[in-house]
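We were asked to recover a plausible sequence for a given structure. The inputs and outputs are reproduced exactly as logged, with field labels preserved.

PROBLEM: sequence recovery
POSITIONS: 258
GIVEN STRUCTURE:
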């Protein structure tokens, strides 16, 4: 039990820069309180003490403003930030390392018995005010934008925005790895290359990195051909890109994200 509690507290520190110490998390984070109360309610529900489970769940709703049905399944390191107005239905399933912000609904679209609520894969992030409605899966690592209304399955790594929700970004792990390698090679930490949002600046930087990757490959091929012909032209080192030259760019990005 204490190991799980320590894990919960660490998950807050990893995802909320406002958290200062463990005592503050224990006493001042309603999202954590809601999760702990849900664990008790869930245990009662699984032991067929349905009314008592609903009573405990209702107490948690009154205390925190977060409504989690005792039948919902919640994974490890689940983080609810702010939390007020969240509703999680009976047949919802939440994976590990999921983050949900205030005003989110994991609801159903039918009064039929059985699976009615969504399943969130590991690492999913659901933005403030979003509604995820129906018995489908939001794939691991996906992101749901603030105030989006999602009623269809979301593939892993995708980003969904709008009403109705539409997919605007699909994660390409191979391409992301190439971009990261190129960013490291030129000594620049391109914040815009992250998979967070459809920022036009981020897309432009990503395309520049793709272009640099292609040019770099061509240059290596040309150098290899010249070397085979006996030329030592490519033996010269390329000019070094100093990290301090990009300090002003990083500073601007940090001020935006801070």
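RECOVERED SEQUENCE:
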């Amino acid at each position: 039990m204490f190991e799980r509690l320590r894990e919960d507290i660490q998950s807050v520190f990893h995802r909320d820069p406002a958290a200062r110490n463990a005592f503050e998390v224990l006493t001042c984070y309603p999202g954590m309180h809601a999760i702990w109360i849900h664990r008790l309610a869930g245990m009662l529900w699984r032991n067929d003490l349905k009314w008592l489970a609903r009573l405990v769940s209702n107490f948690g709703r009154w205390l925190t403003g977060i409504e989690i049905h005792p039948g919902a399944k919640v994974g490890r390191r689940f983080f609810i930030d702010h939390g007020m107005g969240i509703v999680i239905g009976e047949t919802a399933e939440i994976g590990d390392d999921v983050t949900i912000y205030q005003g989110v609904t994991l609801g159903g679209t039918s009064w039929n018995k059985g699976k009615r609520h969504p399943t969130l894969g590991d690492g999913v992030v659901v933005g403030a005010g979003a509604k995820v409605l129906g018995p489908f899966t939001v794939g691991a690592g996906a992101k749901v934008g603030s105030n989006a209304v999602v009623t269809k399955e979301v593939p892993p790594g995708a980003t969904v925005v709008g009403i109705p929700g539409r997919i605007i970004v699909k994660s390409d792990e191979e391409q992301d790895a190439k971009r990261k390698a190129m960013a490291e090679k030129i000594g620049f930490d391109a914040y815009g290359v992250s998979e967070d949002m459809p920022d036009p600046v981020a897309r432009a930087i990503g395309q520049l990195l793709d272009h640099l990757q292609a040019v770099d490959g061509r240059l290596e091929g040309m150098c290899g051909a010249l070397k085979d012909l006996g030329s030592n032209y490519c033996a010269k080192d390329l000019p070094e890109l100093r990290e301090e030259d990009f300090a002003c760019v990083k500073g601007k990005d940090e001020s935006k994200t801070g």
